Amino acid sequence: MKRPLKIVYGPLALNLLLCLSIALFQTDTYCADPGFASHHVSLPQDFVMPIEGATVPHNENFLPNARRSYRNGRHEGVDMFCEYGTPVMAAKNGYVLHISGCQKIPSSFKSRLLEISKRLSETPPEILRVLHGRHLTIEHGMTHGKWVVTVYSHLVRVAEGLAVGDFVRQGEIIGYVGSSGTDSEGVKTGSHLHFEIRINGHYLGESMTPNEAGRLYRAILKDKP
Asked: Which fold is adopted by the domain 48-220?
């Protein structure tokens, strides 16, 4: 009986996969991976860090595609831990697509939602939106055939007067860091921003390991390697 073919990707192949993902944005720079060959590909030039002075974490648990066994799913963005109430800025020019003004989730109801998720193959998007707490989505239009959206979650509040359809400029304050939707909702310890870049409805880094996704976010947000 023949054994099924198992494909093993070496470090160079993995780096190429990372760089091909970056090439979605088609701008003039390169992806350099220390220890491996540099591949001249494209990186977006027009994103900034959504929190002043923040960095993309190296802890895999806070990066895209990290396992979330408690809800039978995957993490879809980057968690940036910072002081409760820290201003959150638009990472790029765009239009406000959605604002969720959530109420505190009753613990019994949250347990129900998590139990439902555990019984399914993945966390349903309807449940995931609830777990994001108070969040805001900005759409940045089409870039070389790709629709780019950013998500800012677990906010304590959204900037006053901000409404769906409003145009926001890069660096403009759109909300403030909190803990809504998490187990520590209303508590200042553990506050963080959950930040996502999404392309055509898929989260950036979906096909990567957390570390690879972290490297991609660092390159896009011009963070230190």
From this structure: Glucose Permease (Domain IIA) (2.70.70)
